[in-house]
Amino acid sequence: MNVLTKNIENRNQVEFVSLEEMVPADHLLRQIDAAIDFNKVYEFVGDLYCKDNGRPSIDPVVLFKIVLIQHIYGIRSLRRTLEEVGMNMAYRWFIGYPLNEQVPHFSTVSYNFKHRFNTASVEYIFRWVLKAAADEGYLDTEAVFVDGTHIKASANLKKQARKAVPIEAKRYAHELFDEINKDREAHGKKPFDENNNGNDSGSGDNSGEPEIIEKTVSTTDPECGVFHKGEHKKVFAYEAHPACDKHNFILGVHVTPGNIHDSVAFDSLYDDICKHYPEHKIVAADSAYKTPWICKRIFESGRVLTFAYTRPKTKDGTHPWYTYVYDEYFDDVICPEYKVLHYSTTNRDGYREYKSRSYLCADCPTKAMCTQNAKCEKTVTRHIWQRFVDMAEDVRHTPLYRDIYKLRQQKIERVFADAKEKHGMRYTQYRGLAQVTNWVKLKFAAMNLKKLATWKWKRKNLSPWKRRRRIFAADYFSWLLFFPFQTKKPALAGLLRQTFSTG
């Protein structure tokens, strides 16, 4: 005989419960709490609070933990996060609030992260998590993987206006200008005037004012940019430019409006990477970073840039670009019909122009495939930093760097997938470049912390059988690999044993 059980009466029961017992031992928040010492937060936020005046403050560790919960679980907003914290026992255990204590209001948390905890505080959190991962030996910064991804802004596409804005000068503009003039002087040409944006004769504008361009600007969030998604759809967006290592730890990030090209944002990101991880040797990026300046900067610093193959952008029915061969010794270009294109000038964009002789091209059998110029002249341009681009092309064909580039899709693209699908980075509700930057850095800090906690927990709770198996493997490989070199490298076997045994 079946007995129908009704549990609705249990709603009014009064029980004594312990949050410590209600949260599973292997819960993710337990792993995070054990992976890092949150008391470090007091060290860099202490000077933001008054010690002898005002009302008692909310624990800053609680505020940071609430935001970490939002980014770890991909919760849409702070308002929804505080609702979840009030109902979820694991969340309450993580922030140290019992069941009968009211959680902070979402506006309090929002105000603190807008007005109290500035960009420096968020940067400290980001670097603090990375340092903890580095101390555990989890970072591998030999190769750095770089790319960009767009984040839809909190801006209505219908609320827009056309606005004239000055074109921002490139960071390397002065260095490029100096090298252009040196190159012109070496070829017997008159150097350019820095304040003259015209031609060689000096007939241009001498005002020295920046060039103005008209752009579409959002009236809701003027700091975002228009991003063309596909052929027809366009949205207002920001773009995050992160760099990660081989273990998918995000090493740095730079946020720009959505209409800024990846190559333009690279300098700020790379400055940050060089500052904190100067030991890196390889940079893997896609074809958007294939510019003379980026190639020059990386190779001149003693590092290597590897990127993807780019399809030749020549018109159908014309000679491929690679059939025009540069002769470095004579500083000339040889066309497919073995005619010489001599140096003509170096323009303001940093490109040397090589032109053919019209009387030689007039009777050329492949003139239609070469030029449609009425004067029968063919002009080939070559950047003054082109040799660095050629070095990157040569590197691309080597097996080592070809394999490293193949890892780019598995590393940086995986970071984007996790951030958008699991951690809610597809859209942002914040407005303004500063607020979006802090939001992105906190999200990546949460992702790094999640990976750090998971790895530490697995290593700590490795079963005895697996641990013995790894120790056996370490002993075997140490004998197999280092037996002939025991007298020269006795520490390598011990190091390998320790690596295998600790995971």
Offer a quick outline of the entry:
The chain has 503 residues and is an alpha+beta fold. The chain has helices at 19-22, 28-35, 41-45, 60-72, 78-87, 89-95, 106-116, 119-135, 173-186, 262-276, 292-300, 358-361, 386-396, 399-421, 433-460, 464-482, 490-502, and strands spanning 143-146, 149-152, 160-166, 212-218, 225-229, 233-244, 250-257, 282-284, 304-306, 325-327, 332-334, 340-346, 351-355, 379-383.
Task: Calculate Rg over CA atoms.
Answer: 30 Å
Number of strands: 14
- Our estimate of the beta-strand percent is 15-25%
Shape: elongated
The stretches of 5 or more residues where confidence is low (pLDDT under 50) are: 198-207, 485-489
Describe what this molecule looks like in 3D.
The radius of gyration is 30 Å and the shape is elongated. It contains 17 helices and 14 strands. Helix content is 42%, strand content 15%. The model is unreliable at 198-207 and 485-489 (pLDDT under 50). It is of the alpha+beta class and 503 residues long. The chain folds into four domains: 15-117, no CATH class; 143-195 and 210-310 and 390-431, no CATH class; 321-385, no CATH class; 462-502. The strands form three sheets. Strands 1, 2, 5, 6, 7, 8 and 9 form a seven-stranded mixed β-sheet that branches. The chain has a five-stranded antiparallel β-sheet with strand order 10-11-12-13-14. The chain has a two-stranded antiparallel sheet with strand order 3-4. The two termini are 55 Å apart.
